[in-house]
Structures are given as C-alpha cells and as structure tokens.
Amino acid sequence: MKASIVRRHGQLMIDLDGKPFPALAFKSFRPTPENVSDFYAAGVRLFTVLSSGVISGLGIPYSLYGESWVGDGLYDFGPVDRQMDMFLENAPEGFLAPMFQIDTRPWYLAEDPERPNSFMRLSQIAGDPRFIRDTADYLRAVVAHCEEKYGERIWGYFMLGGSTTEWFSDYDYEAPHPWKEAAYRRYLGDESAALPDPGLLNREGPNFLGGDEGEVVRFRRFHAKLISDLILSCASAVRSVTGRRKLLGLYFGYLFELGSPRLHNAGHLDYERVFASPDIDMIASPSSYGYRGQRDPSAFMVPEKTLDCRDKLYFLEFDHRTHTAPKVIDEPFYPDSGNQIYNSRIFPGAETACRNEAESLNLMYRDFVFCEANGAALWWFDMLGGWFRSEGMMNAIRHMIEIDRDLMERNVGRSSAALVAVIAEGGSIYRVRKSSPLATGSLNLMRPVFAQMGAPYDLYSVGDLTEPCLADYDFYLFLDAYDMTDETRGAIDRICRRPGKTILWMYAPDYAGEGENSTNRISAVTGIRVRERTEDPGSLLWDGQPITAAKAPHFVIDDPDCTVVARFEDGSAAVAEKTVGGVRSIYSAVYWLPSVLLRKFLDESGIFLYSREPLVYTYANRAFLGVYNATDEAAVVSVPGHAEGVWKDLIGGESFRCENGRLTLPRRELRAYLLCRE
Known about the structure:
Blueprint: E1 3-8, E2 11-16, E3 19-21, E4 24-27, H1 33-41, E5 46-51, E6 69-71, E7 74-75, H2 78-90, E8 95-101, H3 106-110, H4 122-125, H5 129-150, E9 156-160, H6 178-188, H7 198-201, H8 214-242, E10 247-251, H9 262-266, H10 271-276, E11 282-286, H11 304-308, E12 313-318, H12 357-374, E13 377-381, H13 391-409, E14 420-424, H14 438-443, H15 447-452, E15 457-461, E16 475-478, H16 486-496, E17 502-506, H17 519-526, E18 530-533, E19 540-542, E20 545-546, E21 554-557, E22 563-568, E23 573-580, E24 583-588, H18 595-604, E25 616-620, E26 625-629, E27 635-638, E28 645-649, E29 655-658, E30 662-665, E31 672-677
Parallel strand pairs: 4-5, 4-13, 5-8, 8-9, 9-10, 10-11, 11-12, 12-13, 14-15, 14-16, 16-17, 17-24
Antiparallel strand pairs: 1-2, 2-3, 6-7, 18-21, 19-20, 19-22, 22-23, 23-24, 25-26, 26-31, 27-30, 28-29, 28-31
C-alpha cells in the first residue's frame, strides 16, 4: 500500500492507494479491544500503535506488550505482532501507524557503566557512532518486519526517542559527558576541544550573550544539532526500507511551548532542518499545556504553517485530562529503570482535570475547531485507557468525524483566511542567555494574545520567508528575529517591504546579529531610531496601567519623525510607528504586548476583525467560522464581505441569522461553534 499526503479543497488529508482519509486518529499507551473497537465504531480509521519495552517518565511501562529490542542485534517481534493483531481484530478496516522507540534498553546500558541513558540524557549519547548505528539497525529490522507482515495495513511510522518520547534532552541540563565531548571534537574537527564549563553556559546577565561568549553560541548549535542529526539518521534508516510508500513522523520542534530555560536544554532548536527534511512527513505535539482551562484558547506548540506550506501534516495530540481520566496511577513503579520523572501516584494534571462531561466536551470541540480551521490533523490520546470512557465523549468523536466529512462534501475551499503572518525562529535563541525570560515572554506567552486579537493568523518560522505563500499576507509580526542572516534580510525586503504592508517588530530585531549587540541594526531594520540605555525606563504603560517590564538591555525610541503609540513609566517612547517606503513599520521596545494593542494595529491596517471581545476566540478559514465563547455572555462576531443570511452551526445544529454583518451566538453550555453559511 502507498500512503501519501494530498490537499483537497485546501485541506491536507492522508491518501491510501487513492482513497483520501481525514487526518483524525487514535493513540493509546494502553490499547485494549474495548477502546480500539469504541473508536473504530465512532468512525476512526487511522490508528497509531506504540510498541516499546521502555519505562516511561511515570515510572510504568509505555506498553504492556513487551520488548522487541532484546539484545545486540537481537529482536523479538512477537510483542509487535500481538499488538498489531489486536488492533486489526478490533478495527477490521482500520489502518495502522506503528511507533517505535529508539532509547537505550537496560541490557544496552549494562554493557558499559559509562553509557548515558538516552531517555534522560539524550544529548550525551546522540553523537555516539555505535548508538547511531544500533538505532538505525533496530529501526530497519522492525520496520522491515512490519512491512513484510502488515504492509498493506500500515499508513506510516513514528520515531520516538528521548524524554517522554518527544526527543527531549531536558534532564542532562547541558552537562558535560566524555561521550558528548568526543562528539564535540568531531563536530569542531579539533581533537583538543573541550566542552564549555557549565558556569559559562549558565552565566547570569542581560538577555543577550556578549561578544566574548561566542563559545556558548557554538556549543548550543552543536547541542541542538546532535538531536536533529540523530533524528535524520533514524529517518534515513526507515526510508531505506519503506522508500516513499509510507509516511514518517515524530514529536519535535516545540518552539512556542518550552520557554526559558527549557528551550535551550531540550535540544529542539534545530527544528527547521527536521521539518524541511524530505524524509519527514508529519510532526506531532500535545495541545499546549499552558492553555487547558475552560476559558483558555487553543494553542499550537510548533510553527504549524511551516509544515503546511510544505504539504506536511501537523498532528495536535488531544491529551487533556478529561473528567473520566484516571486520577491515580494504579500500577507498580519501576524506579530502577532510571527513567522515572514523576514520583507521585497522582497523575500529572489530575488537579486541573475537567470536572464533568460538559467541560471535557468543551475542550474536545475547541481543539477540533482550532485544528479544522488551521488545516491541522488531530488524534485523541487515550493515554492509559479511560480518557474517553463516556457515551457523550464517544458520540462527540463520532460527530466530529461526521462534521469533517460534511465539510469535505460541501466542496468549498478550506484554505487559510489569515492576513496576519506571525514569524518566529529558533536560531536567534542561540544568542539569548539561558536565564533570560525572552523564550517564555516572546514565544510562549504571546499565543493567547494572538487568540485574543480577533483576526486569524498563521504561525511560520523565519526559514519560510522564501516560500511564495508568505507574499499573500498584509501584516507581518516578527517575534524574535534577534540575529538575522543576509538571506533573511533579503527575503524580508522582497516579501514584506511592499507598499501597503505592515510590519510589527518586537523588542530587538537583528540586535544580536553576528554576536555584536547593537541598536544600530534595530534602527536599520525598522527604519525607526532606537537607542539603548542603562537605566530601567519602567514598565510599558497602556491605559494608565503598567503592562510589560523588561530585563536589560533596555531600549527606547528616539526618533522625532515617528508617531509614539505607548510610553514607558518614565515617559520615554516604548512603541512607535513610521511609514518607511510605503510600508507601515511598528516597533515595540518590549517583547510582549497586550491584545488590545495588537487589535488596534490590525484595525488600522485594514485587517478584518471577527471579534473585538478578547475571550471570544475565533478560528476562521475560507469555508467556515469557528467560535469558542469563553465569556458568560452571548458572543457577537462579525463576518466579512456579503455574508448576510443564515449560518448553521455544525456542532449544535442550530441556525443563526447574520444581520448587518454580525452574528449573535447565545451563551450555552457547549461553548464551541462551527458556522457555515447556508
């Protein structure tokens, strides 16, 4: 069987021998005949199958089916077969995507006491030639077995590694290790090189590294490349068996999620190379952990459109703690594994779990509408079993699959309606000090602001500026472009600096370029004169209230030709704008802005606002308008163009009349709407 990704009416789907399937799937650490058959009966046809003998961060096995990598070059595929057969028996017309974990097993670690545990300290072993070879051999063997025995029922494969199977190297905290140092010497081509001292890597100071700290930047690039190199080695091994007949994916690239200092430690900063690899078709991540309340918006962990514009799928994993999810881990712990991260019987997140079915359904529909509007894939993660054990939740999953089918049958283009491109990058973070709040403030905490601003937006990475689709936007928001390459500057000049466009620059664009910190480059990029000052100007004020306080370096705007929009507490200019070559250039001297300011900029730039109420989140594409009403009042949303008439909510079944370009949606227990014009 050949699996591929195809685009139908603007939506990416999974094509199996010419038959398209919606990218809606099932995953579980504890698949059973009961939950597999329940999801199959609900209409799910794509399943993932995790095969692993590794102990999880919870201190319990990932899978109860047992280990398949049992020794040096020794494999027992009985556990793989038993689980695959169980799925096929209970999902007779389903298709499977096996997930295989490459981490060090107990027998592997026992061979050499110096060998690092890849689950906890991935970066320390990722560059070891034998580990690279052994993981590739295992993947080739297990994938070849699966292709021979189950190839006509397999739609893809997922590669798992590092902490929590997400290719994290969190728990070595960049600490040195002889094996990692050997890899560093090979990387530099210098047999006398030594890893930087941890004191240097963790030095406190201003947000950006100084010119004398180039060794830290060099090391951090190496640290991230170790992980991406291993991923691409594993991908090459799988491709040597499957060719292009099957899809291949992994969890990776959590740029918007990890924050400071984890974004430095984890090893995800080289995500662009992984995302762009022709060997990779799919990237997955959980729904953002910071935004799981009833009044929160949905949020991606990754720059999702980086994948979409390359016809690659992003899977959002719905692993929210529903009201039926177990609150207690009722299995024996395996503390001797060395993998246990959580040392409690209380399941992580249980204290904030949904309290009842209505709350569970709200989050399920919210994330579904978010994914449908953005062209993202979704799978429901029944982690240890019981996550969706209610008739109401299973009916909701059945209904979501029916809605997706309905949308496809309407034969209406579902491409993005966004005119706002949000552009982030990992490369600039190499120049940011680990103790700095920038990775959290400029990336993680801006996501709810985007949701509250009332207009659809697309998340890109800076490497996408060469993609033709970037020219279609009217408003560009650069979050963390602290270290621009000549290629990036040239792409911005060609794509973004065109008459009628707006560019919003956050905090320090190109300030740390080539390791030489200078406000001259901020001024050159923005067209607005900026200077650095040693004294703290205080917080950004808006409507008389302090909003954002920044850590040094402190910037203020010193340009008599610009229009000041907001000031610091000491009266100096904090946000200002200026027309430069027909382009509206806006500069913010702080790295976080409230949604009211972004909404003002969008409004003035002619960007259509679907909502002016921050807690009425709108998720729109060219086929429908999604709404999640996090208020306790009726929601009023606007619709663009000549959209008078009746709009039907495909979730609740009700119809609403649009009058004067507005829809009034009553407050109801189910907060999500998916509205199509009749």
